[in-house]
Amino acid sequence: MASYKAPLTDVKFLLNEVFDYPSHYQSLSNGGEATPDMVDAILGECARFCENTLFPLYQSGDEEGCKLVDGGVKTPAGYKEAYEEYVAGGWQGLSSLEEYGGQNLPASLGLMKQEMMGTANWPFSMYPGLSMGAMNTLQLHGHEDQRQTYLTPMTEGRWTGTMCLTEPQCGTDLGQVRTKAVPQEDGSYRVTGTKIFISSGDHDMAENIVHIVLARTPEAPKGTKGISLFIVPKYLPDEQGNPGDANGVSVGALEEKMGIKASATCTMNFDDARGYMVGEENKGLECMFTFMNTARIGTAIQGVGPAELSYQNALAYAKERRSMRALSGKKEPDQVADSLMYHADVRRMLLTQKAVAEGGRAMLYDAAQFADHMVCAYIEEDEKQADQYDDKLGFLTPILKGFLTEMGYEATNLGMQVFGGHGYIKEHGMEQIVRDTRIATLYEGTTGIQALDLLGRKTLLMTQGGAVRDFTLRMSNFARKHLGDKAVRHYCWRLLRLAAQWNWLTLRLMVMARKDRDMVSSAANDFLMYSGYVYMAFMWARMAVAAQQGLRQGGAQSEDFYRAKLATAEFYFERMLPRAQGHAESMLSPSETLMKLDNDHFAFDY
């Protein structure tokens, strides 16, 4: 059986010694109550909930799965009770506005909560996670009546939310959306259409489910310019704001999936269902990006969380399992064989997992500070500052989602490999982590879509390389600041060279794309992975600096902890960062290597 322990020591190291979250929180208009003691209490209580309630349901939920019973989804045993405990703990409204029932704490605390929950039980965490995206969309784009009607019960956790984009004929290409919304005399709309792959589309854990639906009005322009956004509740609210009459919303099917089986993935039918427009007509996609970006950052956690969970269990197994003798001589002569920990290749796998989990967590916590500033700017109605932080976070979002989910999937496969044949057996839980993680590179935009967004939209089209210049300036300023420290100087020089190379690669691609538009698509994946490796290198350098300071000045953690951080940073720079150079070389290869083979010549026997 697998096990889980919340990595609070690492979390506190990041919060207090790497990113100085105490000072960060005091700089926020909603951060006054996020004192170190309060943050420790919240994280400690969240850890207990995740370890004692959520994780014990992880494997059993996979075995039982969701079931479609009498037209509704029944979640696995224990899920409804766990959700009731989640609601009673006030977790859903942790980072939401007080006027709608929230606690008005910084958004980053919600992300830290979500990371622990996602590591302990990702399928469960998707139910409240989807709600957070719907809540953010309504908070930013809904009018006050809609916020009072829907946002308050969702913040309290009594109602949940979904995002309904995909249809049978279209996934990423939302310009093909066919769902119709016909205006009514009372200002509402009648929504008709079918949506597929709807996470948390139906379940038995909440009073009501609020669907956020993309649809077209009758005279809407074709393509993405003609899409509007609508609230379509499962039950229409009555005059007291409680769930009333059933709306024209039903579950058409429940998908049978490779993983995350305890998370309901539904085909949803809207049959003349009453809906209410959010934001302006034909501006639905712009509003929906609030939801999508929230979901993409949330999905990035599904790279970090499974890497952490798989690492914890692989490490425990490697310490106990004995096989052969170490090549350098017997290490445990009293035992029949040496522990797997004495074999260099096993250590390579474990260190890769550790580097991904801890480096990815640092990337998330770094980006979360931008999210905090962006949310505060929206609350304070400082549109200019909100847009600035939105742009910074927007550049990082595809890197976080694309790179971390790819690396997380690699890490879970390595964890399964450490177990050998036992990793393939269900009882150990390692194969479930692999299955559950595979979807992360697919939903909320595949890695290829994230790569196109990063290179084509965020880097070349919107900023003409400015986003890369801004990020590498931050990285370079950090490196120059610490060049005088002999212990970390080699990391700083590497960062400076990487910053220069990243800008040079961006310029080269910009020039090449002017003559060959296919270059953007052919280079995008390599550009994203290169960007991810460099970003993670920046984070490992920051952690190395903090660890050195902890050793010299007597930090809050043990000397062994700091030395382990330094050893892992060295592993990352020497063993993993070199991968970036392969991506750098590959991204500059002409698109002809991908495009010249005739479609009919890919195969000759079928």
UniProtKB/TrEMBL annotation:
Residues 44-157 form the Acyl-CoA dehydrogenase/oxidase N-terminal domain. The keyword rRNA-binding does not apply. GO terms for molecular function: flavin adenine dinucleotide binding; oxidoreductase activity, acting on the CH-CH group of donors. Signal peptide: none annotated. The keyword Oxidoreductase applies. Residues 282-453 form the Acyl-CoA dehydrogenase/oxidase C-terminal domain. It comes from the Bacteria. Pfam families: Acyl-CoA_dh_1 (PF00441), Acyl-CoA_dh_C (PF12806), Acyl-CoA_dh_M (PF02770), Acyl-CoA_dh_N (PF02771). Residues 163-272 form the Acyl-CoA oxidase/dehydrogenase middle domain. It is an enzyme of class 1 (oxidoreductase). SUPFAM superfamilies: Acyl-CoA dehydrogenase C-terminal domain-like, Acyl-CoA dehydrogenase NM domain-like. Residues 475-598 form the Acetyl-CoA dehydrogenase-like C-terminal domain. Keywords: FAD, Flavoprotein, Oxidoreductase. Its cofactor is FAD. It catalyses: 3-(methylsulfanyl)propanoyl-CoA + oxidized [electron-transfer flavoprotein] + H(+) = 3-(methylsulfanyl)acryloyl-CoA + reduced [electron-transfer flavoprotein]. Its EC number is 1.3.99.41. Involved in the assimilation of dimethylsulphoniopropionate (DMSP), an important compound in the fixation of carbon in marine phytoplankton, by mediating the conversion of 3-(methylthio)propanoyl-CoA (MMPA-CoA) to 3-(methylthio)acryloyl-CoA (MTA-CoA). Belongs to the acyl-CoA dehydrogenase family. This is 3-methylmercaptopropionyl-CoA dehydrogenase. It comes from Halospina denitrificans.
